[in-house]
Specification:
The two termini are 36 Å apart. By secondary structure, the protein is an alpha/beta fold. α2 runs parallel beside α16 (380-403) and α9 (218-227) packs parallel to α10 (251-260). 47% of the residues lie in helices and 10% in strands. The radius of gyration is 21 Å and the shape is globular.
């Protein structure tokens, strides 16, 4: 590991108050992350830069950004010990699919730009071996993941083009059910995947791209697991037994993931971590609709100030539940209990969500999560599996399947 990264990691793990004792697990974490790259399966920084910085993102200094605006910058990636990153290239599922393709290419261009502008920090990789080599050289091995089947516009040719540009996975659909795959958060139309959806899975296998089952319905998860010849990933999903949203993974599917050899990469988004926070968010959304539901409903329709005050009063009476690192660790422990320690990873969703657990506010905080697991008795070997070895194994297996086609 680069000496500067070791120093940054040690500083991060030492709490700010001078009288507080340093984290007793800091040396263990540094040792593990020197040998194994910490790989995050899902970070939305490219899209966050596009949304917030617009065209300035191509030239602005990305070394250190305002933590109140972004969860990610280069300095904090180093401080967090990150050795590998799947950058999400997400575009809105509500856009026409041809526009989704154009915007996906723009996001992929941003990932390439990161490596071109900051070669001492970031290098593009395509394989598990290249990612390990980048980490050994002190750089963050970077890949892009296309976060929505609508982004291929129903075309395997577009999918192949994305692969040529370095795309490492395709999320079969995002927030909307599309012509060939049901979403977890939209009305189902296909009872999972259509025949074309199954063909997409086979083509991903042939190309050596990972099949990502975050965001898809349970029926689509099971269809993909039936069809695929390579291990799958969930790039940013949690255990449904602990937070009952269809965005998370049921125990039934977790057992199938174990049989498939895949990996579930745990999400930090508060609404997918905490059941209380999920319910609170749904209640808050209902309150917003009750107060102001254009064009015909809402008790404060036509009175935006009144609606805002009513919401503020509701939030005061119903404070947001606190979400913690411990709850994220609970999801990891549950996945291990059901599927096994070989089938869990990290997929933060940084810069793609608003509310995060206390202590996990940015990419500099991964060591705090590893420390929590060590406090629970996790071994160095199992921490290494969670941090990166499991997803590296999945990548290697997918590459082998592709080589045999």
């Amino acid at each position: 590991m680069n000496p500067l990264r070791l120093m940054a990691l040690s500083l991060l793990l030492a709490p700010l108050p001078l009288h507080a004792a340093p984290d007793p697990h800091a040396a263990r974490i540094a040792r593990i992350l020197k040998a194994t790259p910490l790989i995050d399966g899902h970070n939305d920084w490219p899209e966050a830069l596009a949304e917030k910085a617009k065209d300035a993102r191509w030239t602005m200094d990305l070394t250190r950004l305002d933590p109140a605006t972004y969860h990610t910058d280069l300095d904090r990636l180093r401080a967090g010990g990150v050795g590998g990153q799947f950058w999400s290239v997400w575009v809105s599922a509500d856009l026409p699919q041809v526009q989704q393709v154009k915007d996906t290419l723009d996001q992929i261009g941003m990932v390439h730009s990161l490596a071109a502008r900051y070669p001492r920090h970031i290098t593009l990789v395509r394989t598990a071996a290249e990612l390990r080599a980048a980490h050994k050289a002190g750089r963050i091995g970077s890949l892009n993941g296309v976060e929505g089947g609508g982004q291929i516009d129903g075309s395997l040719a577009v999918l192949r083009a994305y692969r040529q540009l370095g795309a490492a996975y395709l999320t079969l659909t995002h927030s909307r059910t599309i012509a060939w795959a049901d979403s977890a958060t939209d009305n189902p139309q296909h009872d999972g995947l259509t025949p074309f959806g199954e063909e997409v899975v086979r083509e991903l296998n042939r190309l050596g791209m990972l099949v990502d089952l975050s965001h898809v319905s349970e029926a689509a998860m099971l269809d993909a697991l039936r069809v695929t010849q390579a291990p799958v990933i969930f790039s940013h999903s949690n255990a449904r037994a602990l937070c009952d949203t269809p965005r998370n993974v049921s125990d039934t599917v977790l057992r199938q993931v174990a049989a498939n050899g895949g990996v579930v990469m745990v999400n930090f988004a508060a609404q997918y971590v905490s059941e209380a926070r999920r319910i609170w968010g749904a209640d808050r959304s209902a309150e917003i609709t009750r107060n102001n539901a254009p064009p015909f409903g809402g008790v404060h329709i036509g009175d935006p100030k009144g609606a805002a005050q009513a919401l503020a009063d509701w939030e005061k009476a119903h404070p947001e539940p606190v979400t913690t690192i411990a709850q994220v660790a609970d999801h990891i422990d549950h996945i291990v209990k059901v599927a096994g320690v070989d089938h869990v990873g990290i997929g933060s969703d940084f810069d793609g969500v608003g509310a995060l657990p206390q202590g996990l506010g940015g990419v500099e905080t991964y060591p705090a999560l590893l420390s929590e697991l060590m406090r629970r008795g996790w071994s160095d070997e199992d921490i290494a599996k969670l941090a990166g070895e499991n997803v590296l194994r999945v990548m290697t297996a997918a590459e082998k399947v592709a080589s045999e086609k």
